[in-house]
Amino acid sequence: MKQQIDILAIGAHADDVEIGMGGTIAKWIHRGKQVVICDLTEAELSSNGTPNLRKEEAQHAAKILGVGKRINLRFPDRGITGSHEQIKAVVRVIRQYRPRVIFAPYHIDRHPDHGHTSRLVREAVFSSGIHRFQTGEEDQAHIATLNYYMINGIHTPHFVVDISNERDQKMDSLLAYKSQFRPDNGVITPLTDGYTDAVMARDRLFGKEVGVQFAEGFMTTKPVVIDHDLLGEK
Predict the structure, then answer these.
(1) Is 101 exposed, middle or buried (0-12, 13-18, 19+ CB in 10 A)?
(2) Spelled out in words, what is the top-level CATH class assigned to the domain 7-222?
(3) Using an 8 Å Cβ cutoff, are 4 and 33 in contact?
(4) At the top level of its lineage, which domain of life is listed (predicted)?
(5) Global pTM exceeds 0.85
(6) Alpha-carbon 163 to chain mean position
(7) How far apart are CA 204 and CA 91, in angstroms?
């Protein structure tokens, strides 16, 4: 069943979207926007937790942010290849939900899956707008704007979103992934060593740059049209 939503946020693993734009999602949902999260893999190769536990944590995190729909395409973890079949699968999602804006991980990232996802989504967004691109289903071409959120690393953003009021909500969504960030019994990974604090420190840094407490940074594929926000209006 086709829908018309505002935002489709795509990540390689459950928790990617929350890390990069959890506060922005919460902000837009507060404003009545419809958001769908799409995880590409079940993160079955993660050092801590299990796929089933990760699914439970992902649904809990989505609920904290107010997201009503979260799907998983079950691509193999470390197997995001950008194959024609994977492109078609993402195109089907885009054409089903028909979002106005799509978000994917920024391609410069220490985790190869995030870079592969970035390139795969860009391919899918382009292909989705081609009327003769076939997915095996009766779907119609759909064009959407593509932007990128950051997972690992700090890059000079093209634009930021003030999440000062959503800071706690974002942190709660991250802490829903206890198996990843604060496991009771598990191996030490970069995620278990103050990772969530580092994420919020980055948001604080971006916020400081624009005179607010916390902000999330984004990269664009084309210039952003400014209507009234340049004047500081809400």
Answers:
(1) middle
(2) alpha beta
(3) no
(4) Bacteria
(5) yes
(6) 15
(7) 35
